[in-house]
Amino acid sequence: MAKWVLDAAHGGNDPGAIGKHGRREADIVLEAVYEAKRLLERNGEIVLLTRASDTSLDVKDRINIANNWNADYFVSFHMNSFVDDSIKGSEIVIFEKGTRAEELSKFIRDELLANLKSNDRGIKEASYTVLRETQMPAVIVEAEFISNEDIEKNFSSIKYGYMVAKACLAMVDKVLIDIPVKKPKTPTREGWRICLGYYRDYEEAEEELIKLNKNGLKGAYVVPYPEENERFKN
Question: Is there a single domain that holds both residue 91 and residue 201?
Fold first, then answer.
């Protein structure tokens, strides 16, 4: 069991990159971290989000959240953007190669390439504050270019979250299991009865029935109740 800080980049007055048709990076990554959180927790991991709504958060706040919580891993979700709208592909940024962060980034890269059929733009090193000052393996995931019109139209934030969650679980030697929550089947019967309460006094029950009739409830009536059921008193 590991502690994961999932960081949805941007937010609030910082929408991040915006596609030609108005999709915002901040919205995509927030939905993605929620999906990743759901899957990680379902598989026994512990998750903390740096932001859980469309709010603004500076880099220092994100770092402090992770460090103060003593997280095991920090994953920051982003989309990429470029002036050339034909560019596409995914890349991951870490502070230094030869580390646990690079190991995690390789799992994430493999998932992105396999599921997005994305161009591999590599694992890159950078001295970003959020990577340099976090006290645990930290990665920045740049999943595709929102500046690419086709990507903006078809990119699934839910799938993004799924891919990262699967990679994170592989990092801790787990296989993602996502068992859907099934609704109980409704038994087949001719009809159903609604019981409103138990009354020791007939007049009290009748008064309650009159009130219900005035409130529009039709088809209700008073019936005798066996003595042994007195434990169900109203």
Answer: no
Across residues 49-63, what is the average pLDDT? Answer: 96
Amino acid at 185: K
Has 142 been annotated as catalytic? yes
120 and 73, same structural domain? yes
DSSP for 174-193 reads -----PPPPPPPPPP-S---
Average pLDDT, integer, range 80-88: 95
Model confidence, pTM: 0.76
Q: Which range of residues forms the domain containing residue 75?
A: 3-171
CA dist 101 and 103 (Å) reads 5
Same domain for 151 and 212?
A: no
Element (H, E) at 47: strand 46-49
Which whole number is the average pLDDT over 149-161? 95
Q: Are the CB atoms for 213 and 82 separated by under 8 Å? A: no
Q: Which residue among 35, 45, 91, 142 is the active-site one?
A: 142
Q: Which residue has the higher pLDDT, 92 or 199?
A: 92
Asked if residues 39 and 159 have their Cβ atoms less than 8 Å apart, the reply is no
Asked if residue 63 and residue 152 are part of one domain, the reply reads: yes
Instruction: Give yes or no: residues 70 and 119 share one domain.
Output: yes
Q: Based on the domain organization, do 132 and 55 belong to the same domain? A: yes
